Amino acid sequence: MKKLGLIDKIIFIFNSLLGTALLxxxxxxxxxxxxxxxxxxxxxxxxVLILVNLGFMVYWIIRLKRQxxxxxxxxxxxxxxxSSLYQFSSNTQTSEKEISIMSYNVRMFNTYDWTDEENIPExxxxxxxxxxxxxxLTQEHTVDETNLKEIYPFHFVHRKGRxxxxxxxxxxxxxxxxxxxxxxxxxxxxNAIYTDIVVKTDTLRIYNVHFQSLNVKPEIDNxxxxxxxxxLGRIGQGFGMQQEQAEMMMKKxxxxxxxxxxxxxxxxxxxxxxxxxxxxERFKDAFLESGEGFGQTFKLNYFPLxxxxxLFDAGIQINSFERFKNEYSDHYPVMTRFKI
Length: 340
Hints:
Layout: H1 6-25, H2 37-40, H3 46-62, H4 68-77, H5 79-85, E1 99-105, H6 120-131, E2 135-141, H7 148-151, E3 154-158, E4 167-172, E5 176-183, E6 191-199, E7 202-210, H8 220-225, H9 228-253, E8 259-265, H10 273-278, E9 283-285, H11 286-290, E10 308-313, E11 317-323, E12 334-339
Parallel strand pairs: 1-2, 7-8
Antiparallel strand pairs: 1-12, 2-4, 3-4, 5-6, 6-7, 8-10, 9-10, 11-12
InterPro entries: Endo/exonu/phosph_ase_sf (IPR036691), Endo/exonuclease/phosphatase (IPR005135), GPI-anchor_lipid_remodeler (IPR051916)
GO molecular function, one term: endonuclease activity
Domain Endonuclease/exonuclease/phosphatase: 102-331
């Protein structure tokens, strides 16, 4: 510090504060949101803290200052978090008899005209036909908006109650022998459904999950207008509800020894308690196995946010992972090819 100029000293003070903040944020994934709702909100800032500390590290390296070690050590300690944010190269392979599965939050097929684009249901259907996944999971699915049932001979479309505006659906080219819905007790349309799908001699259990929304609008102008205390309180409350929902679903998951895939809209990041709770030693994240780049799945104008996940039982071979950047919803669809 003695050899630093005044400006560099100020920069290093901020570097120290933000490095400490990142170090402490690593612990948030292990703290239940219901215990400290407002504290859990900080997990949303982990990606920003990672990028800021990377910026500090590069700055000090260019300046040939040993102060780069601060951010370097903090980032090294959280290597798994850094790798969750960005994948430098995809690890893809192909194999015979591989199966493809797609997850897509279709935003009610534009029922409320969130976009001026026309024929959204038809465009989504044409996109799905083009990519031709063997298994398709949709969230915010409104009934009878497409002819997907004509494409897939087996399907389970479920809304939580008569008054639900939308629900979740699983479409399959393979026979469905069992179906079930974990209806969360909270008001709203969120739930987790699963189907047992027979693929030749194997039976896969496929979960399609849609956790509680945090109701954060992607436009930055809307965030500026909103009262910060109310916003933080709502997000903290949402995290607490997500914890209850994840616990309900995982209780059901652990009752079965079938090879299992959990996919859908988590409405949370890979740095959260929810993700850590679900993605235990039994599962592996398809993006981390075969993805590339930031893997952004939600249209946030100012940050590449990944909140849609595909988690596979360790006994399943992941061949490839793709994210498709189309404009038909506020989410981007993701697809994984795998082999049992």
